[in-house]
């Protein structure tokens, strides 16, 4: 799986570089490129592997893979802003507003969202209905009923009188990070016009496991490894899966979710090997 | 034309309300709705009248009209942020970050951009190629080569050592406000698969005339009428069409542009009556 992840990384970086190649020189374009450096590209990997399950080639799925990574980059740039999470370190580098300015970071995030939709409109798979359905599913996943709603819940939680309970924190995670993961993992099925059910189930489970592992790493991780500031949640007295379930409880929960994710992949047999490996990687990673 | 403008306003407001009807209750949705209140809806009017030239109905064009207004609303919310233009008054009301918070304003703008693309994916006109072409043209107009680039140029101009010259200020305006106006005015032709040339020419001229009139109103206007803070450009020692051409020179230039815009409409004859009226309205308005 690591080879495939490296392969996807290289393809996505090339696609993003190509998409921005004709952009006007200046701080805005520089900041957009900067925001697209690095990252694990797990969402792009999900798109490419999801597409492969339905006989679609990397070349066909690449615009969609690049789109989810451009969208993810925008969300990180805006989340890191002083008015939001106020982070100064991301992927081991100064965050966008530290490196440039708040104004440039806001605009770079805005333009990366636009780029994501522009890339989505480039893919050449399927009928009109399929192509439009993909754009619609994407906008549902990342808008005011998906990712941005989750971020708004997260901001609201910071000023709430009571820490969130496990139901509320699951709902938050499912919107904030889960919706784009579900979109990524089901994109192949959407493009092929096939049932999205099993991949939705897979993605919900790994999305939650991913967040739990993030919470675990926030407590036991290494800033040099993760490339971001740690123990922010503890310092902010924020409810996390670790604070609610304990470290062992959180680990058990994540392992159970990964088993569920593996079961959801059964209809796809051997072809889903990389997706199975990814599920395990999510809780084994230390960054 | 005023009756038609009121009619478009009502249709677009209903479409935006309907699009947000199922959104989760809370500050984010409230702020998005708040940002969509009011406005002249000139861009929506352009979409509807452009569509009508090619035999498309209001019902068919409405998702596109609502999309350009959602996009415009997002751009205003982000432009008004403290890190950007730092405005406290818009459309006669406190700006979004004053009414709510900076974090909510950033997220509401983000989600309004997503909503715009979601609405665009709803329209039911034409072939797959046409529908995707419309989304692609929209992303070109509002991204890092269009509107957001113009806003970045505007921010850069504020800290530049020399005020901009007339070539640079035209380039800035053409990107910042012109590109979305061109998209709106040509959207009917794109949907119908017809030549966008004449409407592009029309839109470039009224877009520039609109900006010149804005600069004139910034000097001679009334804050109660315009619903926004005035003389900000003068206070910031920023080059404007008025500072570069003088008040009379700016008025002459705007009148000439409107005549060019009217000429560009000749291929459409009587059917373009409302678009002709709009061109004149743009330089006669006092708000």
Automatic annotation (TrEMBL), chains A, B:
Keyword Metal-binding: yes
The keyword ATP-binding is annotated on this UniProt entry: no
Enzyme category, top tier: transferase
CDD domains: Trans_IPPS_HT (cd00685)
Alphabetized GO MF terms: transferase activity
The protein's required cofactors: Mg(2+)
Family, per entry: Belongs to the FPP/GGPP synthase family.
Protein name: Polyprenyl synthetase family protein
